[in-house]
Here is the input.
Amino acid sequence: MESKKRKVKEKMTRKERETQLRKQIILEAAEKLFLSEGYEATTMDEIANEAEFSKGTVYKYFNSKDELYIVIGIKAYELIIRFTREFAAKEDPGLKQIIAVGYAYYEFTKQYPLYANIFHDIALKLPDIAIKSEETLSEIEKDYLNLSNSYRDIFIKILTDAIKIKAIRSDKNPFLIGYILSSLTNGLVNDLMQNKNFIERLGLHSDEIVDFVFEILKEGLSPREN
Here is the structure.
C-alpha cells in the first residue's frame, strides 16, 4: 500500500515538472517574439509554432496573449525592484536615497531596454488591470499588481523616512511627491529611449540630461525655510 502511494506521489511530481517545463518553453517563445517582433505583430499561432506546441496546448496554460505579455512584465517589475533595492541600500535615508530610486529605474532601462519597452507598453495596452475588481483578476494579473504595490511601498517608505528626519520638505503629502517623481522619471526615461537619435544629434547625452533633471528635483524637494 505504501509503495502504491509513493508511486502516485512520484507520478504527480513528474506531471508537475512537465507542466512547469511546458510553461517555461511557451514563455521563452513568447518573450523571444515579443522582444523581437513587438506585441501587436505577435500572434498566439506564432508563439505556438516557436514553442513547437499546438495552439491548444498554449491555451491550456495561458488564457491569452495579454496574459503572456503580463508575465514578461512581471519579469521586468522584478528587475526594477531588484535595482531599486540595490541602489537605495547604498544611500542613507534622505534626499540622496530618493534620487537613487530614479537612478535605479534609469539604469534598468539602460541595461534592459527591451524589457523597459514592454514595461511601458503594458501600462498603455492593458490599463484596465489596475481598476479591475479582485474577483475578476487572473492569478497572473494578481502577481503583476502585487509587484506594482511592492514597488510603490518601497518608494513610499523611502519618502516617509526622509520626511521623518526632515531631509525633504514636509508640507506635501508623500503620495503626491511619489506620484510626481514617478511620473516625471517614467516620462523622462521613456522619452530618452524613444528619441535617442534626436538627442544625440543635438549633441546631448542621456546621462547629463538625467543628472540635470534629478538636480532640479533635489532643489524642489529640499526642506523649506520657515
